Hints:
Elements: H1 2-76, H2 98-101, H3 116-119, H4 126-135, E1 157-163, H5 170-179, E2 189-192, E3 197-203, H6 207-214, E4 220-221, H7 237-257, H8 261-273, E5 292-293, H9 307-316, E6 319-320, E7 326-327
Parallel strand pairs: 1-5
Antiparallel strand pairs: 1-3, 1-4, 2-3, 6-7
Helix pairs in contact: 7-8, 7-9
Amino acid sequence: DKQPKTQATDDAAAARAEAQALRLQNSQQAALIQQLQGENSSLQQRLSETQDRLLRHEDSLQSLQQAVQALQAAQTAPAPAAPEPAPAPAQRVPRMQAAAVVPVLRPDSADVPMTYASATRNGLTAEQMEVIKAMKPPPRPFRARRDQQASDSNTPTVRVYFGNMQSCPLGLLKTRLRALRIRTSAIPNFAFVGKSICELLVEASYKDELIAKMEQFTFRHLPNYDPAVPQDPNVTEEVRVRLQEAYAARLRKTAGTTTRPVVRQVFLQMMNASNIPIPEDLADNTTATTLVQGTTEEMPLAPEATAQSHAEDTARDQQPTSDGNVTSSDASAPIPTSSNE
């Protein structure tokens, strides 16, 4: 009897388990069906929105096509010719009434003012042209540039020497000095007496100002420098003779080629003071009153690289010391230039 009861109990338990599994499966399927229904409704909503956008785009496309067709039709249709205004007689309009009487702006560019030069190329009427002429300010009176007067023959001059200046063409030297605010009109003559020493013939009234300005840069004033004598007292007699010959040749050449009276007189005076024979083709005007202070020679405006000048430069091209004397050196520095050169 126990065996049939146990088997019936097991069958009932199995049936209950199977029923529970079926209920669980049914609940899962119901949840899945509900999820699928939600996704379906979402997709249907997106589909309807997409269809609405397509309809709107179709409407926009149709309106755009209509606008393009209308524009093409307007371009192909001939534009009606505007009647040309009859030219009015030329009459000058008072300046104060010009803006109120006649417009000076074209209708198609009302926000862009028209200049006098552009108005002549845009077919304005004569009356409008007169208005623009009245608005144009009168030309400024011509003022000729007054050149600075060069040093005359009676202007006191003095030669000033500066060291640590790199040799360069004299035109470039004058340009750079002007960039440094040096008044070159007060310097009748420029010359390099060596690779790093420059001589300036300066008006006496401008000497102190020139020295002060030059010493603001890398230049050194050499008050004791004399290019007429060797700086080394132990040079040989041959070098001394070559230096004197080159010195005399340069004085004669510059005195005969310069166009500045003050420079010519200085050279003739230096030749006379150094007992150098003056050529017959040079006018002997050494009696003219030209004050030359603290110097012994004047240099050419544009010296050439001759054998005499090279020998002279080699004999006396030396670096100055703090007291104005020189020692053997070829050191030099470039001439500084301003930022706007």
